[in-house]
Every structure is written in C-alpha cells, then in structure tokens.
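Dear H.,

Thanks for agreeing to be a second pair of eyes. The structure we're designing against is below in token form, covering all 375 positions.
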C-alpha cells in the first residue's frame, strides 16, 4: 500500500528526507550527494532566510513502511509578484521507478498549490537560484557536480507521462584548460582594462573579502541576474546568510574581483576545485571521516575545476570584461594542474555567455529542464 505523508521540518525529519536521495543513488558512479547538513539548513524555516518570502510543504512516499519517494512544494511570493503570476514550484524530488509513486508525490504538491491559489506548477526549482534546479534530461553518464542535480533517466519519462512539458532548459559545457592564455583573451583584456579603467583585485584574507566586498558581491549578482528566468532577488538577510555560509570556503586564488576607478565592483568570477569525488566518498556526511575527504578535495590534486559563478554588471556586459576574469584565473588553473573546467548550468538561450567558451574546445555534455503544468 502506498502512503503519502506530509512531514514537519524537524531536524530528524529533514535528515531522513535528505538521506533518501543518497540511499536511492547508492553505487551510482555519476551521482554526487549534497552535504546532508546543507540541505537540512536550506529546508529549515528557522535557518534559511528564503523562508521569509517562501511557503514550503514536504511530502514523503511510503510503501509498506519503506520510503520510496520525496518532494518539496515551494511558493516564492517575491518571484510571483515580480513575474505577475501564481506559480508554485516543486523541488527536492526523488522517487523509485514506479509511476504510482511519482503521480502521488506530484499530485500532493499540485493539490497543495491549488489550495494556495496557484494556477501553475514548475520545477524542479529551489527557493532561489543559489539552490539546485533543473531535472537532468541529457548526460546521465557524466559525473555530476556539487552545484547540480543528478537523476536517473526514468525521471523525465515520468514527468511527461504526468502531463508536464518543457518550460525552460539549461545546458552545461565541459571545457579544456589551455596550456597558456589565448592571445586573443590577453589582447581583449588589456584593451578593456585601459578603455574602462578597470583593474583586478586579489585577496589573501577571506575576512577582508567579506568586509570590503561581501555585500557588494551579492548585490552585483542581483543586478547581473535580475532578468534571468525565475530569478529571486536576494534580500539583505539572505546576503548576510550567504556571506557567512559560503565566503569562508573560497579558494582566494580562484576568486577574481574586477573594480572600476572608484573601486566599485563591476565583475566577479568564482571557481572551485571539483568536489564531486570528495562528496561521493563522504556520502554527504562530515563525520566521522567526511571532513577528511572534503579537505582533500579542496587542497589535494584535482584535474577539474568548477566555474561556480560569473557575474558582470549590466553596464559592462558585452564589452569584453569576461576576458579580464579569465586572464587572471587561467594562470591559476594551469599552475594547479586543472585539465578541464565545468561551466555548470546556463540558460540555453544565453548565447552571449556561451560564446565566451569558444576558445576552450567546449563539449556540451549535460542538459537539464524545468517542467511546467497548468493546475
């Protein structure tokens, strides 16, 4: 007998909610688990400030007492107001290959959404763009990243069977790190720096980064991404939260800030050694030895780097500023022995972003999808 239960966001329940996914993919060589503590924090209304403007419901599916699926329903009131729509989101969705289970999970969120006055359900999406989003539809035999969702190939089949259709796609590229900076990038970067009086800032202290440019960095992300699909503007409480949560983890060699003559931040590039293998070994846990695997991932030998974020102020977009970022970052990639770089998801319609990868022999290796259904 199949049973769908709404679960309350206690720490114990959230751990079980997160652990189901890790157990479902046990032994899968392409899956990269989240840190259980990170997902617990994201889903906890008392800890994640996105809950200030989001509603949430959590369901788990049980068959004969065994967990066989999970899903979150989310309403981002801020985005709905901006987009003038009444859309709910589903996210954190995982299920065994059983049509009854997927139908029951999505049916529960559909009913919850209608009861909340919504007329559309979209997903997978999180609370904001800094959460995982997009169901994998191509690239099931490619190693996932810590910033993305992995799912089995049967997931999209279930979605389409239930009447969900493509709303938007993200694509990802795997690039080759060149042996030296392409001459064209050096030339463009030097011209742009002179023309707009821009310069690169590097730091040795994370504390100074947080103090001098922490807030400016996230305000730049807001300004750069505000027109992207379903973007949720970060509030001051969220910015404080992300500064504390993420900036202490940065490898400062792989952080590039570009400022104008008045020291205003106009561009940022953030990358990180791939943590995929380390997270696989940790199975999402810091203890007892998960921290050791994660530390090795950050400090040890690695042939892959994740391009977590590139943001350029709208006043400087399409003016070659990206060349400045990679003029600075590439020597570090080369010195650290990285052979490949992951772009991570970008909208398939964002041609100007994709053009910046042309010099790096890019291979589009994954595609992920946001589905929608009218309620």
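And this is the sequence the design step returned. I haven't edited it by hand at all.
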């Amino acid at each position: 007998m199949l049973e769908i239960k709404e679960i309350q966001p206690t720490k114990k329940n959230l751990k079980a909610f997160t652990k189901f996914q890790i157990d479902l993919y046990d032994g899968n060589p392409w899956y990269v688990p989240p840190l259980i503590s990170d997902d617990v924090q994201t889903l906890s209304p008392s800890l994640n400030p996105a809950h200030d403007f989001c509603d949430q419901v959590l369901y788990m599916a049980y068959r004969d007492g065994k967990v066989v699926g999970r899903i979150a329903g989310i309403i981002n009131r801020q985005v709905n107001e901006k987009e003038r729509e009444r859309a709910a989101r589903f996210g954190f969705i995982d299920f065994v290959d059983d049509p009854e289970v997927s139908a029951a999970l999505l049916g529960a969120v559909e009913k919850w959404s209608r009861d909340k006055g919504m007329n559309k359900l979209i997903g997978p999406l999180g609370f904001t763009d800094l959460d995982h989003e997009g169901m994998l539809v191509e690239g099931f035999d490619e190693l996932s990243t810590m910033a993305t969702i992995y799912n089995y190939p049967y997931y999209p089949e279930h979605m389409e069977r239930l009447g969900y259709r493509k709303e938007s796609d993200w694509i990802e590229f795997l690039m080759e790190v060149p042996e030296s900076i392409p001459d064209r990038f050096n030339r463009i970067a030097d011209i742009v720096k002179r023309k707009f009086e821009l310069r690169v800032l590097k730091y040795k202290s994370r504390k100074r980064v947080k103090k001098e440019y922490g807030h400016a960095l996230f305000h730049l992300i807001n300004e750069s991404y505000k027109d992207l699909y379903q973007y949720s503007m970060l509030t001051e409480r969220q910015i404080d939260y992300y500064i504390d949560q993420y900036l202490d983890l940065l490898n400062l060699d792989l952080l590039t800030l570009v400022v104008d003559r008045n020291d205003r931040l106009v561009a940022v590039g953030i990358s990180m050694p791939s943590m995929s293998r380390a997270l696989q070994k940790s199975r999402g846990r810091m203890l007892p030895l998960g921290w050791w695997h994660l530390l090795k991932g950050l400090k040890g030998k690695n042939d892959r780097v994740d391009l977590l974020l590139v943001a350029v102020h709208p006043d400087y977009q399409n003016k070659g500023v990206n060349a400045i970022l990679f003029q600075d970052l590439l020597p570090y990639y080369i010195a650290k022995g990285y052979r490949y770089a992951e772009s991570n998801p970008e909208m398939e319609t964002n041609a100007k972003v994709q053009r910046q990868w042309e010099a790096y022999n890019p291979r589009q290796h994954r595609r992920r999808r946001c589905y929608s259904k009218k309620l």
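Two observations from my side: Residues 233 and 285 are 30 Å apart (CA to CA). The chain has a mean pLDDT of 93.

Warmly,
E.
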